[in-house]
Amino acid sequence: MEKSMSMAPLLLMVLCLPFALGWHDYNQALSKSILFFEAQRSGYLPHNQRVTWRANSGLNDGKASGVDLVGGYYDAGDNVKFGLPMAFTITMMSWSIIEYGKPMAANGELGHAMEAVKWGTDYLIKAHPEPYVLYGEVGDGNTDHYCWQRPEDMTTDRHAYRIDPSNPGSDLAGETAAAMAAASIVFRRSNPAYSSELLHHAYQLFDFADKYKGKYDSSITVAQKYYRSVSGYNDELLWAAAWLYQASNNQYYLNYLGKNGDSMGGTGWAMTEFGWDVKYAGVQTLVAKFLMQGKAGMHAPVFERYHQKAEHFMCSLIGKGTRNVQKTPGGLMFRQRWNNMQFVTSASFLATVYSDYLASSKGTLRCAAGNVAPTQLLSFAKSQVDYLLGDNPRGTSYMVGYGNNFPRQVHHRGSSIVSIKVDSKFIACRQGYAAWYTRKASDPNVLTGAVVGGPDAYDNFADERNNYEQTEPATYNNAPLLGILARLGSGHSGYNQLLPGIYNLYLHYVLWF
């Protein structure tokens, strides 16, 4: 017998469960995502610091090595400054602004986003005191993880580690060059002198990376346990060349992509992931853009091979390829147990920009299962962001402070310990574990905007501080999300994504740098 259903309960359910239906405030999520970076700041905090439970920290960084390394970002829930993921964070924040600065400005967040980039690039400039010297880490994970302390109380070793011609690190130097080049585009109109300085550093760092080849974690061995460069350095060299071409329009870097695409794997690797270690999908997306812009010239055959690999990546995301990404029963892209969300946000960003590139060129995505409209890529990105914000079997928002049901016991030292402004009593190295780490209570400081590692392959999640695989946030989880949220919050982009990126910013936006 067929059952009839009253509309009243259904209407009540619709009103009470907005997350289940994907009604999200992307602009609010964007604002919170940017705010997270202020909680990750190291150094002297500025007068306009909005995360007020934080205070100055790491004020002697670099001093023992005779260099000023005060500033920058802590990467995740610890107090180490790791150069490779920090640089990738800056690259992806910059790319987000380059593509979607206009809706960020409309939302009143462009200034905050640019401040977040500049906080990172100011540090990267300090970390590059000579053409062939780059400091790639301050502190080390082993001694840092032995302690559970607020950054303001740190008593751990703050040794500074560097690369140079005798101890090279092409992946680290290449990613830092990419970050400087991308950021130079961001500041080209609002701060041309700073933009030129960044581009100058990018040129030098690319030269360093290309001339003295080697993996950075063979030189900075303390990074191996935490940020090992599994992919090597060829992807970073191509990635840096792509960003330097976009920033400078210098044909040398376009030629580099053309001449080295085959030998360095740019045209060979068919990827299903993108992140701080493996950059090939990002390179392939940028080169596909250059091809769509008609800039390939004599390198068109090589660039078409990059393009094909970019499309392989995009097809794999939407389940239309020859080798597709794994997804949870609830529909989340799944790559690994430990901080899976980093791959979700990075891949979704590439899908978003590629969708807009295709729409701007009036093209379609060519997949093994047939041609696909660009809107399907954007729909994929939206589905991943909606899942992150609460449209999932648990009804959990994996962005702290967004919605009502978000992680309360985040694996994060500063968030989990009472603010030094509330209780200035010193908390010793191991004391933090005994007094705060093991507390089965909500964090005293809400880490607003932080995107945590997220659920497992079956959509399960345990909100426990010691569950670092799922509850630890990271800057590189948030960086690509800025662009996607700005895009989704704006509706239709309304401008050509194949025009030079700087024209997608509000050119007369007044900033205070």
Automatic annotation (TrEMBL):
Its EC number is 3.2.1.4. Gene3D superfamilies: 1.50.10.10. It catalyses: Endohydrolysis of (1->4)-beta-D-glucosidic linkages in cellulose, lichenin and cereal beta-D-glucans. The keyword Signal applies. It comes from the Eukaryota. The active site is at residues 411, 463, 472. One of its GO terms (molecular function) is cellulase activity. Pfam families: Glyco_hydro_9. Keywords: Carbohydrate metabolism, Cellulose degradation, Glycosidase, Hydrolase, Polysaccharide degradation, Signal. Residues 1-22 form the signal peptide. Residues 26-485 form the Glycoside hydrolase family domain. InterPro entries: 6-hairpin_glycosidase_sf (IPR008928), 6hp_glycosidase-like_sf (IPR012341), Glyco_hydro_9 (IPR001701), Glyco_hydro_9_Asp/Glu_AS (IPR033126), Glyco_hydro_9_His_AS (IPR018221). One of its GO terms (biological process) is cellulose catabolic process. Belongs to the glycosyl hydrolase 9 (cellulase E) family. This is Endoglucanase. It comes from Gossypium raimondii (Peruvian cotton).
